[in-house]
Please model this.
Amino acid sequence: MTFDRDFSRYAPQIDFDMPELDELDLTLAEIRELSDDNLLKLLTGESDQGFISPPLLQAINHEYIRRQMEITSKTHWTILPTFIVACLAAVSSIVSLGISIYLLSHS
Model:
């Protein structure tokens, strides 16, 4: 609770004009067409295209995170060759074990 100069219970009325802000207006299709660098500039405030409303900021953030998840969810190129080498190693060890057992039983 604030008091004015006469100690009334009501706050003083202050009139001021809000500055005109250019508001950035993007559709979801336009957001998807932007590059990662442009999305990051919008998120960090480096872009001077205007005021970004919270819902638009959330949509931009969602698109940027979606792209990053696509990049990180791709498997590394070494996964398949490593699997193939491991299978070959397992098969060769089974074959060598079978040969060893066969040679020991016939000697």
